[in-house]
């Protein structure tokens, strides 16, 4: 600095200062730059810095907006809240102002800091240059290490040894030092003329010229070939001989960079330096592809010269075609690289987070992905694409003539051009020869693939379709930003148009259906939606074409700036889930409507809530058109609410019943019942009010179709005008309907549809309940349920008529409510027995009333919440008894069973005789037990002795009971009666055998193994006699040790090894002989009927089993006694 001050001082006569311009500094005759010049050469660094004015402006606007909001909201606050709010705002604002003051103080040194940052950047650049120089020197050192020394000059060495001095100079030194004689201007002109003549001859007579660069000129010893919009190349020939080929001289690419012109210097049209050398080497290699290798070529030791390439027979070399294909690819690749550079430059100018640039490895495809979105948080599930779309620019080959073309590539040859090309080949090559290479037609393909669900909106295909030729690469204006902005603008217009269609034509946005509600305003630069909410309130919805983010703002002045934070919050929320734009616009309208309704309810003194803690799945029951709710709680029934459902068109009114859900951390209310109220019918004076259900009855649908629905104009204030009188009547009517809906709740819980009929069509109350009436009962419709729905899955559904009435009682009184269910039977069955009485109306139990004249069964339930379950339980019992009584009454005539007759029937129990003096009583037990719903009691009604009333079928009761549990009740009952009749002789003979064995103290046991299989087990537990019922009322009597299935018996005899003779039954000794002797003894009796002896027993009629069974039992018993005695003697 001392030297600088001394040189720059006023004593130096070489330094002058005029007009305030810094004086020039001259030191030792060399110009030295001034300090200002040095500072201007420093690079400018602006990363992480913002303008102080912008920061101050933002802070002041925020403070003003908060003050305005406080001025609007504080008058409605209490004094304490105002003071606390104002104090909090002052503290917060003071902190912001102090921070701003500190920033302003720091900004005083901003120039020094900026200069320091610039100097730091300059030093970093210098450091990088030093490091690069070091690396270059090291590379040069590494490259010189393997360098070889030249061979020794032996001739010069001999001259020095013999003569003492040099006699000659090396030829290479002469070539380097001694300049050749220059050519004269005339010689140069003649040489160039000869070269031009040789080139002109070759181009006209020998070489095939691609039509795409057929525009050429020859001057200055070179041929200049021009391919429009691609390149202009200059070539020259090596000589006039046949084997002398072409060599590359220069090239200029024909394109113009658009957009930011500062990038022109980075991409010169004429390549220089290494790029030009690379192009020249590649072009010369292609031009000399089939040229012979020079003979005087001396390669270095160890390097082998490749053999020259040979053309196939009939093929002529076409070097100009090859060089055209190469330069065409170079030109188009160069243009694609320029577009890639421009895209990367866009990323550095603020597009980095929203634009992704990709280039394939072969550098022929450039892909731009725009509107990149950050991945959402793991706990957020928003199905929005991660990008808005892709713009792909590719270099492709033109395959078909129908493909779209542009100025960026040569057009396809027309028919005329193709003929000219063929004529050229024939004239230069001959008829039967062809060129070695053909022209490759390349073109730029620009493909736009937008995401049709970008921002969560499904866009029609035609909305994102650009006209043909709209997207193309123009070599006269290479600008990737203009291509990208065309796509972004079109995509933004399509998305906003979709939003407009959704708001104006969708069902849930009917509020904006009038023409001026939503307008799409678009110009050449930007586009946005202008949404008219109400009155003078207008919001503007736009899309930032750079980021793809939605923006919402109002059109108010600075006085409404207090809404800016609110709109900013909503904008952030919308960009997380953009499809909620319509919901936000509807919510503004919804809040106003809710405020009006809430004001009316509070005026009437009703307790109302805007929200209740009801699960979302329950709220969906109000329908898809519900936009908002107002819950008015009934003071008499805390679990019931009158709900005002706000839709796009009008109010809808519903009556609900809620229940607190157990096991939840938060107190949650679940909707147990819901019914819609038709206010139009109520206001017109009708006494009937129907609760909408799903599905509705046909009669209900027909009546609703005849009602005229007066739908006001969408958005009209009259559609939401709620009178205080209407709200008061709705509240009173809901209180009267709560009791009635409790019955309907039971049906809904069982998924049973129901309908309402007029009280006159219902037929009134059943007999016995006429005293339970009220003057208001005719004002309430009767509940009608289809028997096929209510009795679905229950037995006996065929016994009931189609319609079943359910009538709540005592809803008008304070006493406990009851429900009576009336079922009309399809046939009338008079009660029988002692409990039937003389009246046509009987009451077998407290909950059942039966009118025999009308065939109506009434079921009375004292618990409203369980009335359906109690009815189904009682009906399951009664219906079975009705079906059994009917079937038994018809058996005598249908089956010709004269001794089968009904003895007793009272809807609870059916008793009938299946044989003379033998009867069975069937009762439905509790169906929850595992042994089935039927209980059978066997008896003998005509015998007076209690001991003689024993029916031997009692032992078979478990097996007989199971018969009724399988299949339909009617066929099962017929099978039961048939089995009872056919097995009666068997059980009687077993009973006689058991009685006789007890009298003689014989250890004999009789029991049933199934409904058709009975066994007599003798006292030694080794021998048994089986009685099996067969078809045709025949009985098989056989030795129990033998099976009816021979295969099973053989396997049993082979595999089973009895231990101590106790595991299996033993064959009865001489059983066949015993059977024969028994039949001989009974042969004289005609009552035994037809008997068929078999290997191990006999088959007889059921009527003869008594005689044969007793006789065979006696003989077997005697035989076993003899056998046991003989065995004991032998063992002794």
UniProtKB/TrEMBL annotation:
State where the protein is found. Answer: Nucleus
- Specify where it is mainly localized: nucleus
One short Pfam family name for this protein?
Answer: Med14
Report keywords, A-Z: Activator, Nucleus, Transcription, Transcription regulation
Is Nucleus there in the keyword field? yes
- Region of interest (Disordered), residue spans: 695-714
- Span of domain Mediator complex subunit MED14 N-terminal: 49-238
Q: Which PANTHER family match?
A: MEDIATOR COMPLEX SUBUNIT, MEDIATOR OF RNA POLYMERASE II TRANSCRIPTION SUBUNIT 14
For this chain, the family text in UniProt reads:
Belongs to the Mediator complex subunit 14 family.
Q: How does it assemble?
A: Component of the Mediator complex.
> What exactly does this protein do?
Component of the Mediator complex, a coactivator involved in the regulated transcription of nearly all RNA polymerase II-dependent genes. Mediator functions as a bridge to convey information from gene-specific regulatory proteins to the basal RNA polymerase II transcription machinery. Mediator is recruited to promoters by direct interactions with regulatory proteins and serves as a scaffold for the assembly of a functional preinitiation complex with RNA polymerase II and the general transcription factors.
The protein's name in its UniProt record:
Mediator of RNA polymerase II transcription subunit 14
């Amino acid at each position: 600095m001392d030297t600088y001050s001394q040189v720059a001082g006023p004593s130096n006569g070489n330094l002058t200062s005029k007009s305030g311009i810094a004086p020039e500094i001259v030191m030792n005759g060399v110009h030295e730059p001034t300090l200002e010049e040095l500072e201007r050469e420093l690079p400018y660094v602006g990363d992480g810095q913002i303008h102080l004015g912008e920061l101050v402006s933002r802070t002041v606007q925020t403070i003003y907006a908060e003050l305005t909001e406080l001025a609007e909201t504080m008058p409605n606050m209490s004094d304490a809240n105002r003071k606390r709010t104002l104090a909090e705002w002052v503290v917060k604002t003071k902190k912001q102002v102090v921070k701003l003051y500190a920033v302003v103080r720091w900004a005083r040194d901003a120039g020094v800091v900026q200069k320091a940052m610039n100097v730091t950047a300059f030093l970093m650049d210098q450091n990088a240059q030093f490091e690069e120089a070091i690396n270059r020197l090291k590379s040069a050192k590494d490259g010189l290490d393997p360098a070889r020394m030249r061979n020794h000059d032996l001739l010069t060495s001999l001259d020095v040894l013999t003569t003492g001095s040099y006699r000659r100079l090396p030829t290479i030194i002469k070539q380097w030092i001694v300049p050749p004689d220059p050519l004269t201007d005339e010689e140069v002109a003649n040489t160039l003329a000869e070269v031009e003549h040789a080139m002109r001859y070759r181009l006209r007579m020998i070489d095939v010229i691609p039509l795409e660069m057929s525009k050429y000129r020859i001057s200055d010893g070179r041929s200049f070939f021009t391919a429009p919009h691609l390149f202009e190349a200059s070539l020259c020939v090596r000589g006039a001989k046949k084997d002398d080929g072409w060599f590359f001289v220069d090239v200029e690419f024909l394109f113009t960079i658009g957009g930011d012109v500062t990038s022109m210097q980075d991409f010169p049209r004429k390549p220089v330096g290494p790029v030009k050398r690379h192009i020249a080497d590649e072009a010369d290699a292609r031009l000399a592809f089939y040229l012979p290798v020079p003979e005087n070529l001396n390669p270095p030791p160890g390097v082998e010269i490749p053999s020259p390439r040979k053309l196939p027979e009939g093929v002529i070399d076409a070097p100009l075609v090859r060089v055209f294909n190469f330069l065409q690819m170079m030109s188009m690749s160069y243009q694609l690289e320029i577009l890639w550079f421009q895209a990367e430059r866009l990323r550095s100018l603020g597009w980095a987070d929203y634009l992704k640039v990709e280039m394939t490895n072969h550098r022929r495809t450039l892909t731009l992905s725009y509107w990149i979105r950050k991945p959402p948080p793991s706990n957020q599930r928003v199905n929005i694409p991660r990008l808005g779309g892709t713009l792909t620019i590719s270099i492709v080959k033109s395959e078909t003539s129908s493909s779209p073309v542009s100025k960026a590539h040569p057009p396809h040859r027309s028919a005329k051009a193709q003929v000219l090309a063929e004529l050229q080949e024939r004239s230069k090559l001959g008829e039967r020869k062809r060129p070695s290479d053909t022209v490759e037609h390349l073109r730029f393909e620009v493909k736009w693939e937008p995401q049709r669900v970008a921002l969560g909106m499904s866009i029609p295909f035609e909305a994102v379709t650009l006209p043909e030729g709209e997207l193309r690469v123009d070599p006269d204006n290479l600008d990737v930003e203009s291509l990208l902005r065309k796509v972004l603008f079109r995509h933004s217009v399509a998305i906003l148009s979709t939003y407009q269609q959704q708001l104006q034509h969708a069902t849930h946005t009917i509020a904006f259906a009038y023409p001026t509600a939503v307008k799409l305003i678009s110009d050449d630069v930007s586009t946005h939606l202008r949404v008219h909410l109400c009155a003078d309130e207008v919001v503007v919805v736009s899309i930032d074409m750079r980021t793809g983010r939605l923006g919402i703002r109002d059109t108010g002045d600075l006085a409404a700036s207090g809404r800016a934070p609110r709109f900013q919050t909503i904008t952030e929320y919308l960009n997380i889930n953009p499809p909620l734009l319509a919901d936000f616009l509807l919510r503004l309208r919804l809040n106003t409507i809710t405020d009006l309704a809430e004001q009316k309810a509070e005026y009437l003194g009703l307790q109302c809530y805007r929200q209740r803690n009801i699960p979302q799945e329950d709220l969906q029951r109000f329908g898809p058109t519900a936009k908002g709710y107002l819950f008015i709680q009934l003071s008499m029934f805390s679990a019931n609410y009158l709900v005002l459902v706000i839709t796009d068109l009008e109010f809808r009114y519903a009556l609900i019943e809620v229940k607190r859900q157990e096991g939840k951390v938060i107190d949650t209310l679940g909707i147990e019942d819901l019914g819609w109220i038709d206010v139009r019918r109520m206001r017109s004076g009708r006494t009937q009010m129907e609760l909408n259900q799903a599905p509705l009855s046909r009669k209900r649908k027909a009546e609703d179709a005849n009602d005229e629905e007066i739908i006001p104009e969408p958005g009209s204030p009259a559609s939401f005008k709620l009178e205080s009188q209407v709200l008061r009547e709705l509240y009173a009517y809901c209180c009267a309907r709560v009791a009635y809906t409790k019955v309907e709740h039971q049906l809904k819980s069982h998924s049973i549809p129901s309908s309402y009929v007029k009280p006159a069509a219902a037929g009134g109350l059943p007999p016995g309940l006429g005293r339970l009436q009220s003057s208001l009962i005719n004002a309430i419709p009767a509940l009608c349920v289809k028997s096929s729905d209510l009795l679905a899955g229950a037995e006996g559904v065929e016994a009931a008529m189609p319609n079943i009435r359910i009538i709540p009682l005592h809803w008008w009184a304070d006493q406990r409510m009851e429900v009576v269910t009336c079922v009309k039977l399809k046939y009338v069955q008079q009660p029988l027995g002692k409990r039937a009485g003389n009246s046509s109306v009987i009451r077998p139990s407290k909950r059942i009333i039966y009118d025999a004249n009308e065939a109506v069964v009434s079921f009375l339930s004292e618990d409203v919440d369980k009335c359906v379950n109690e009815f189904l339980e009682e009906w399951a019992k009664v219906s079975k008894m009705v079906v059994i009584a009917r079937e038994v009454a018809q058996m005598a005539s249908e089956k010709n069973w004269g001794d089968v007759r009904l003895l007793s029937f009272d809807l609870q129990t059916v008793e009938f005789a299946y044989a003379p003096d033998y009867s069975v009583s069937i009762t439905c037990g509790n169906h929850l037990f595992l042994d089935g719903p039927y209980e059978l009691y066997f008896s003998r009604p005509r015998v007076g002795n209690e001991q003689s009333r024993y029916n031997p079928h009692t032992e078979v009761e478990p097996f007989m009971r199971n018969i009724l549990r399988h299949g339909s009740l009617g066929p099962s009952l017929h099978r039961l009666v048939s089995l009872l009749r056919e097995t009666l002789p068997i059980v009687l003979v077993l009973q006689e055998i058991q009685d006789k064995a007890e009298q003689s103290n014989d250890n004999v046991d009789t029991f049933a193994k199934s409904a058709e299989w009975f066994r007599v087990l003798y006292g030694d537990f080794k021998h048994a006699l089986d009685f099996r019922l067969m078809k045709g009322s025949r009985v098989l009597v056989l030795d129990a040790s033998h099976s009816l299935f021979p295969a099973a018996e053989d396997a049993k005899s082979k595999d089973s090894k009895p231990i101590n003779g106790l595991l299996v039954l033993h064959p009865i000794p001489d059983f066949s002989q015993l059977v024969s002797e028994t039949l001989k003894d009974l042969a004289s009796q005609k009552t035994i009927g037809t008997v068929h002896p078999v290997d191990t027993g006999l088959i007889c009629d059921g009527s003869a089993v008594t005689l044969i069974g007793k006789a065979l039992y006696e003989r077997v018993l005697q035989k076993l006694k003899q056998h046991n005695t003989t065995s004991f003697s032998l063992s002794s």
